[in-house]
Specification:
The chain is of the alpha+beta class. It has helices at 20-32, 104-109, 179-187, 223-226, 233-250, 256-266, 275-287, 289-300, 307-311, 316-320, 331-346; strands spanning 6-11, 38-42, 49-55, 58-66, 71-78, 84-85, 115-118, 122-131, 134-143, 152-156, 161-164, 191-192, 203-205, 211-213, 215-218, 268-274, 323-330. Strands 1, 2, 3, 4, 5, 6, 16 and 17 form an eight-stranded mixed beta sheet that branches. A three-stranded antiparallel beta sheet has the order 12-13-14, with no helix packed on it. A hairpin with a 5-residue loop joins strand 5 and strand 6.
Length: 375
């Protein structure tokens, strides 16, 4: 499948795509974005802030936007070859060397067991702090609210496998679209229990006084780096949903292509960028200046002996700093849906499943991450 340039907005805290406050904050961030690779969503500021710091001789700009939720978004660009920029704090394994492998959604779907670990009431983050026109970075303690309630419907003590279900069995609720937000509306607000059963196992109480154990998801490598705080239960919901869509495609069921396109559209927007961000920077980082200059000469007919000559070329600004359209995708989950949609709807390719083991065929490729898919 021919790859397409894409821009991905990666949040530090992976929230549900149907979280209303976060969705509004994304709109605010897009309105104020001027090409910075890092955007901060900060509820305690009242005006947009912009600043830069030096990285390998280049200015790396950041901005902070007044918001309802707190988060940090890294805006990355992925080239047709899979080269990625910026290479800082985007949750990629070092072994990938800044290149996104093709078919990343397959690797995610073929992850086997996802562990549950005790949640935390507070975490430390390093964030910008402003005093007038000055900016500094400080380590701050961030209080974490307990998440949604997910009923346990089965527990296998031998395999240590827990099955959650939403809607709760017998609740007569309609089929779920977002277990996380639906649970919050029905069972929330959820608050921490003042005297938990154990200090190592934090518990919370829903609006009805029911106690629940607070746990976070812990993904195997490399997805533990991409979802450092585990992500929401909607992440597991979408993993099962995407797998079901692929199974339905293999069975020839109608309407599945439209369903995939619909979910992909929830995570995508028509964005803008420059070729300096989407082509020059990723290629330079991945291949070096000599390979970049050779490629530019072949693609654009611009001859330069070094980077200084390239940046001062008469055609550089008009070709590489001019705004161009690009698909904008929100979060790694959005990227998985976007990539699947590119395969089945844009390229019209088939995504086969091995009848023997339940894995996508491409999961058997060398160095692929394999494991039986879980519904």
């Amino acid at each position: 499948m021919p790859r397409q340039r894409v821009q991905v907005w990666l949040p530090l805290f992976e929230l549900s795509p149907l979280n209303a406050a976060y969705a509004r904050d994304l709109q605010r961030a897009q309105k104020e974005w001027r090409g910075e690779p890092v955007i901060w969503l900060l509820p305690d500021i009242r005006e947009v802030k912009r600043w830069y710091w030096d990285f390998r001789g280049f200015r790396v700009w950041e901005c902070a936007v007044p918001s309802e939720t707190i988060n940090r978004i890294v805006v990355i660009h992925i080239t047709e070859e899979g080269f990625c920029y910026p290479p800082i704090e985007v949750g990629l394994p070092q072994s990938w060397e800044g290149k996104i492998p093709e078919g990343l959604f397959r690797k995610w779907l073929n992850v086997g067991r996802v562990s549950l670990v005790p949640g935390l009431k507070e975490i430390k983050i390093t964030r910008p702090v402003f005093e007038g026109d000055r900016v500094s970075y400080e380590e701050r303690l961030l209080k974490v609210e307990p998440g949604p309630v997910m009923p346990i419907v089965s527990l296998d003590e031998n395999t240590r496998k827990i099955t959650f279900a939403w809607p709760p069995p017998g609740s007569h609720l309609p089929p779920s679209v977002s277990p996380e937000t639906e649970s919050q509306e029905i069972c929330g607000p959820v608050v921490w229990e003042e005297k938990p059963l154990s200090p190592e196992l934090p518990t919370a109480l829903d609006r009805f006084g029911n106690r629940s154990l607070n746990v976070w998801l812990q993904w195997p490598e490399p997805f533990n780096e991409m979802f450092p705080f585990g992500g929401s239960m909607d992440l597991m919901f979408h993993k099962a949903l995407m797998r079901r869509c692929i199974e339905d495609l293999n069975e020839g069921k109608p309407g599945v292509l439209d369903e995939i396109a619909s979910w992909a559209s929830r995570f995508t927007a028509q964005g803008w960028t420059t070729l300096e961000l989407a082509y020059i920077a990723p290629t330079l980082e991945a291949c070096g200046s000599e390979a970049l200059l050779t490629d530019i000469e072949g693609r654009y007919g611009i001859v330069a002996g070094n980077l200084r000559e390239l940046f001062s070329h008469a055609d550089y600004c008009s070709k590489f700093r001019h705004q161009v359209d690009i698909p904008r995708v929100f979060g790694w989950l959005g990227y998985f849906w976007w990539e699947l949609n590119q395969v089945v709807n844009e390229s019209k390719e088939h995504v086969p499943i091995c009848e023997r083991c339940g894995w996508s065929y491409r999961a058997h490729e060398k160095n692929a991450i394999v494991g039986q898919m879980i519904i």
